[in-house]
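User: Design a sequence. Structure:
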């Protein structure tokens, strides 16, 4: 929803550098560290000799939606950064050369489970990294705790520096009133302060920040935004959606070193949780940071970077041409636009008012006419488009834009695999429009773990009953891609997989319309093959099949067979990208042989 190092590269030994925080004593592939760019690789799955063979394992090569059952083998051969073969131990081990490293997973004893690397279809890596280095308010259980964290950070701040950060969520608090500038003034020591709610769609500013931005009771509010005022008409400090731009434009940009360190921390987080690919919406500076990491051989996760839909078309064309769009390790991808805000902030655009705020139907950022014109222009330039749309009114606007003609008998959505990001509240009649237009539902099941605490109050029973409707999309033949919306939610994919198959809270005590539960095969498909399809990469990743990229993870449990509650405790043992180990936890490895 946001609008805003396994850390080792050098060693080829079987023990990864303990000084970087995680080690494994045996069982590693011959190659470790960051993957090299795909353009540097030669050979093919049929001609390259195996460098590594995994055998005696339980290896999920993929899942089929139609048949609904896992495709499991015991052995896999890797070479040249690709999967060479999968099958029985005998079939695969006969491919071994004298130099091939053969690893006995001994899954019956160790419990090791191998599966395709997970692909998070919706992240904000730059914002996540900066939040780790700023005022991190994630999980604060009260307004008092929020202010205590701000006060503690203020003691370390340089004179005149802005206090930035976020992650606060007032719905977690016993008294769920929003923070105010006066409360923030009391702990910010005169520093300008601007702190985002967890969803990134509202923020609280203190008096110094409002003054720096020139925000007063007379400030004109941009379309799609709001500035909350008190009974006297004075700003309370709460700024919503597009109005946040008024403050953001006066905040000094982060230094290059600060930005890079944040991106490195976010990548650490991703690979340690089994992500081999992310589809990301961060800043252009973040993309340049990823580019630098790739050039230095240090980029450890595949990144498809989205560009802002609202940027002028010449800028978008320039940025698209800046980097090879066929580089599977790093490239620019779709255009990301925002239709509305979020349910938690009551800024998601709804057809009917909020059940707990009858005078409010949310905020739409575009008129339909303007949105249609921009979508047509960008579609004609060949861009894939993804619209953040949480409310049913916002989703309907997005679908209408996708249905506009662009000439030659084509529509905006024709052949572009356009997407609706989130699609939490959708008019049931509009699900068929997704199918007709070929639009992908890019969703984040983990949001329900948070939202089910208050979504009924926001929506009322009728709308709630069809919300977060993963299964109804699949049943209608709509492509589904899963992600986390990191850092709005933790980047771990296992919370989302658990929620997708249970539609229950993490304690297992509360359920949300269980008819929309998915099977495990369906949930894993959406997090691997479905996410790959959403970025035009389904023929290269998302499965462990001959010719596919050697992107896979080793887990400590079998996601297809463990009790559903146990999915939450899944531990990533190793993450491998392009045949190279980019993360390894400290654990006793299985036996090995040659």
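Assistant: Done.
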């Amino acid at each position: 929803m946001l609008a805003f190092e396994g850390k080792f590269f050098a060693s080829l030994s079987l023990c990864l550098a303990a000084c970087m925080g995680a080690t494994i004593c045996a069982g590693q592939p011959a190659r470790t560290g960051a993957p090299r760019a795909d353009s540097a690789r030669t050979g093919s799955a049929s001609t390259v000799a195996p460098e590594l063979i995994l055998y005696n394992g339980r290896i999920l090569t993929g899942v089929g939606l139609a048949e609904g059952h896992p495709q499991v083998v015991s052995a896999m051969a890797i070479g040249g950064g690709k999967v060479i073969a999968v099958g029985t131990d005998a079939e695969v081990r006969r491919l071994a050369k004298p130099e091939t490293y053969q690893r006995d997973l001994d899954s019956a004893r160790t419990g090791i489970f191998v599966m395709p690397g997970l692909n998070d279809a919706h992240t904000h890596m730059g914002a996540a990294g900066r939040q780790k280095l700023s005022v991190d308010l994630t999980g604060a259980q009260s307004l008092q705790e929020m202010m205590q964290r701000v006060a503690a950070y203020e003691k370390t701040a340089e004179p005149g520096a802005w206090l930035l950060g976020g992650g606060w969520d007032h719905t977690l608090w016993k008294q769920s009133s929003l923070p105010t500038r006066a409360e923030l003034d009391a702990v910010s020591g005169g520093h300008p302060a601007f702190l985002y709610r967890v969803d990134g769609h509202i923020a609280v500013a203190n008096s110094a920040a409002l003054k720096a931005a020139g925000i007063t009771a007379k400030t004109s509010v941009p379309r799609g935004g709001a500035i909350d005022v008190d009974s006297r008409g004075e700003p309370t400090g709460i700024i919503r959606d597009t109005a946040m731009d008024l403050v953001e434009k006066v905040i000094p940009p982060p230094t290059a070193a600060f930005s890079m360190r944040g991106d490195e921390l976010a990548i650490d987080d991703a690979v340690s949780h089994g992500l081999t690919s992310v589809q990301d919406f961060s800043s252009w500076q973040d993309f340049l940071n990823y580019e630098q990491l790739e050039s230095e051989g240090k980029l450890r996760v595949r990144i498809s970077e989205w560009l802002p839909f609202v940027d002028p078309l010449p800028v978008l064309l320039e940025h698209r041409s800046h980097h090879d769009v066929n580089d599977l390790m790093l490239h620019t991808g779709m255009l990301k636009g925002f239709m509305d805000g979020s349910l938690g902030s009551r800024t998601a655009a709804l057809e009917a008012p909020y059940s707990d705020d009858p005078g409010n139907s949310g905020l739409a950022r575009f008129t339909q006419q303007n949105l249609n014109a921009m979508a047509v222009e960008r579609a004609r330039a060949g861009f894939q488009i993804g619209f953040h749309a949480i409310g049913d009114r916002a989703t309907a606007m997005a679908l209408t834009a996708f249905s506009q003609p662009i000439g030659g008998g084509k529509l905006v959505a024709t052949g572009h695999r356009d997407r609706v990001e989130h699609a939490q509240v959708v008019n049931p009649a509009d699900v068929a429009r997704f199918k007709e237009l070929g639009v992908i539902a890019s969703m984040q099941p983990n949001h329900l773990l948070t939202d089910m605490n208050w979504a009924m109050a926001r929506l009322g029973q009728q709308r709630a009953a069809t919300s977060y409707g993963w299964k109804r999309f699949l049943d209608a033949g709509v492509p589904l891609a899963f992600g986390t919306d990191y850092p709005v939610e933790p980047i771990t994919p296992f919370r989302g997989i658990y929620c997708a198959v249970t539609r229950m809270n993490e304690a297992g005590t509360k359920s949300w319309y269980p008819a929309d539960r998915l099977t495990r095969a369906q949930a894993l498909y959406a997090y691997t093959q479905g996410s790959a399809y959403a970025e035009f990469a389904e023929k290269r990743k998302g499965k462990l099949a001959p010719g596919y990229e050697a992107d896979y993870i080793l887990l400590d449990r079998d996601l297809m067979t463990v009790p559903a509650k146990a999915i939450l405790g899944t531990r990533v043992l190793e993450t491998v990208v392009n045949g190279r180990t980019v993360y390894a936890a400290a654990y006793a490895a299985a036996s090995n042989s040659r």
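The chain is about 30% helix and 20% strand. The first strand starts at residue 52 and ends at 55.
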